[in-house]
Specification:
It contains four helices and eight strands; from the N terminus they run H-E-H-E-E-E-E-E-E-H-H-E. The chain is an alpha+beta fold and 245 residues long. Keywords: Coiled coil, Membrane, Transmembrane, Transmembrane helix.
Length: 245
């Protein structure tokens, strides 16, 4: 009995010794694990901090580049605005010059037309003046003939009413034209024309017709002088230029 009790005590002591060793091993292992984890965390934090510093420097550099680019863009925008203003002013000047040249060309065309240097085509009227019917009771034959002053009355009224070009029997008139009467014929710039005299004028047909047909106007005056007066509106009249001087 005594021997068995001793054996039981020895067994308990051995069991307690194993527990102590196991505890020491676990303690050392836990320490190693903790130390390794702590070391790993420090290295990770160091790498993170180093990476974070690099990213910050890179971000700062990119931000500086962006600010520099913005400043450069602002300068370029200001320069572009100045250039655009210069272009705008030049365009205004050119448009004014173009308008001036256009007006000069238009005036030159009008002057050439008035001088009979260019061919003219357009709407207008045709006035025909013919000698009156012979009347044996009239002693003076000139009382029923068309004279230069009759032609002048028609021409002046047409010009006043806006006629752009006029011709007598197809011969263009200019600002220097002259008309003389020699019996039954008239001379226009040295060229003789017998009656009847056809006066063609380019202009607004309605305006020209109304001006000639005014009560007490040119038509009535010519009819009172025994002149045969006829008036027609034309949709297209062509007047050739004067050749030579």
């Amino acid at each position: 009995m005594i021997q068995r009790r001793r054996n039981k005590k020895v067994g308990r002591i051995k069991v307690k010794g194993n527990h102590v060793i196991l505890s020491l091993v676990c303690l050392v292992l836990g320490y190693l694990i903790a130390f390794s984890y702590h070391l790993t965390q420090r290295e990770h934090m160091s790498d993170t901090k180093r990476l974070s510093d690099q990213q910050w420097e890179k971000t700062l550099d990119l931000r500086n580049q962006l600010n520099a680019q913005k400043e450069s863009n602002r300068k370029l925008e200001k320069e572009l605005a100045k250039k655009q203003n210069m272009v705008f002013e030049n365009e205004k000047d050119l448009s004014k010059e173009a308008q001036v040249f256009y007006n000069l060309a238009e005036d030159a065309e009008k002057y050439r037309m008035f001088l009979g240097k260019v061919k003219v085509k357009g709407r207008g009227v045709k006035v025909t003046l013919a000698d009156g019917a012979y009347n044996p009771k009239v002693v003076n034959v000139n009382n029923y003939l068309v004279h230069e002053f009759h032609v002048f009355k028609v021409i002046n009224e047409l010009y006043i009413s806006g006629a752009a070009a006029i011709a007598i029997n197809g011969q263009r008139l200019t600002s220097h034209s002259y008309i003389n009467c020699n019996g039954p014929v008239i001379t226009v710039d040295g060229v003789q024309h017998p009656a009847p005299f056809m006066i063609t004028a380019i202009g607004d047909p309605d305006v020209l017709t109304a001006a000639l047909n005014l009560t007490g106007g040119v038509k009535d005056q010519l009819v009172n002088d025994n002149i045969v007066f006829s008036l027609e509106q034309e949709n297209e009249i062509t007047l050739n230029p004067i050749l030579g001087n």
